Amino acid sequence: MPVGLLIPNSTIYPSLGRDFVQGIRLGFDGNELPLKMEGIGLGAKSSECETALQKLSIEHNINTSIAYTGNAVLPDLVAHFTDPKSLLIHTNLGGHLPCDIPDNRQVIHNAFDLWYNAWCLGRHMAKEGHKEVLYIGTYYEGGYQMPYALDQGLQEGGAAISAWHVPKPDAVNFDMDALRSKFREQPPQAVYLAFNKSDAKDFLSAYRDAGLDQLAPIYCAPMMLESEVMNDLQHLNFSCTTASSWFPSDDHPNNNAFRKAHTDAHGKAPNPFALMGYEAGLILKAAQALPDLSSLKEHIRELNGPRRNWHYNTTLQKTCALPHIYKASISNGHCEMTDLGPANEPESLPDKLFKTRSVVFTIWANPYLCI
Q1: 58 φ, ψ to 5°?
Q2: Mind listing the pLDDT tens digit for each residue in 306-355?
Q3: In whole numbers, what is the pLDDT of the chain averaged over residues?
Q4: Fewer CB within 10 Å: N-end or C-end of the chain?
């Protein structure tokens, strides 16, 4: 039986769809998996996504689909999966789910959890003694709850974001003169950088040329250390710390097997899009092996995914995985990634994060990096 696939576009990562599909097929053990794909633009409009689902259902009689969309459209998609034999695997790189998602055993939300990782990194920074943190990032990056989650993690350890630098999109040289003034007037104990592939190289080059890179330890979102970004930064000498539930270099049996399978099949290490596809493939394979879907969510912990302690959290209505703290050091064209160990988030973290749903929600409807 074919499986439906709703896939968005990304100008930042044009290979997103291909990487995601390659991951799905690997997660399904490389077995032949017929996919019926529907493009959904930026994955931000409920009307486009629902039309694609209806086409898959009516024209192709498909009741199992994988959808890579923004979280804002998820409540409308859930309504299409009421048949006990139907299944929706919803995925993206992270962000809070809306408050009004009905509990539905036919729907599994699996994400890379950038906001969850930001919370854990904030708490780690506070534990390291960084009580005053300067947040530096673009307006776009601020729309996926990462700044809020970072600040909440900092506050858990008695710290806070003490200043912000969010240059306008048309600002020359990222308004570096204003940033210098912030360092003089209120020297931070650490900085947090939120830039994606389209801006990271230019910003870090300007940051170094302004003589600011040695004034405070640098922390960042994990996608700033994604392989394509790191390739762009090989000429720089700097170190940066992040929190993430996965990096391709993670050394444990499940991830080693995933990395080898992906490298053997495609000649390169996997990226987060391939990871999300791979996990969707694992879920799909498990679903097809079960007599019914009533135990699928509980079964995820047993699927031996590449991420540590990957499981379904009933409080957050989604999968979660254990974040680790990583330090990347780039010197003379060589990058060394060091795993500093688990972030050790408190057991109450899911409850804390769930409560913030009514406080803050993703302001962008499209999935992260789908612009």
Answers
A1: -80, -45
A2: 999 899 888 778 898 989 999 999 887 778 889 999 987 666 666 666 66
A3: 89
A4: N
Q: How far apart are the first and last CA of the chain?
A: 32
Q: What share of the chain is helix, strand, coil (3-state, %, to 5)?
A: 40, 20, 40
**C-alpha 97, offset from chain centre:** 13
Block residue for tokens 């290979």: 15
Tell me the two tokens of residue 311. Answer: 């499981």
Query: What residues contact residue 226 under an 8 Å CB cut-off, 6+ apart?
Result: 197, 271, 272
Please check whether residue 140 is in contact with residue 194, taking contact to mean a CB–CB distance below 8 angstroms.
no
CA distances from 108 to 38, 49, 50, 111, 331 (A): 20, 17, 17, 10, 41
Between the CA of residue 219 and those of 92, 139, 175, 193, 224, what are the distances in Å? 23, 18, 20, 6, 10
- DSSP annotation of 103 reads P
What are the tens digits of pLDDT across the range 183-206?
Answer: 999 999 999 999 988 898 899 999
Tokens matching residue 217: 């330890």
Q: Which residues pair with 327 in a beta bridge?
A: 241, 338
Give yes or no for a contact between 182 and 202, defined as CB atoms under 8 angstroms apart. no
DSSP lists the bridge partners of residue 324 as 244, 342
Is 263:235 a contact under the CB 8 Å cutoff?
Answer: no
Secondary structure E strands in the chain: 3-7, 35-39, 64-68, 87-92, 107-111, 132-137, 160-165, 190-194, 218-220, 238-244, 311-313, 318-320, 324-331, 334-342
* Mean pLDDT calculated for residue range 81-88: 92
| C-beta of residue 359 within 8 angstroms of C-beta of residue 84 | no
- Number of Cβ within 10 Å of residue 175's Cβ equals 15
Residue 308: both structure tokens together: 């540590």
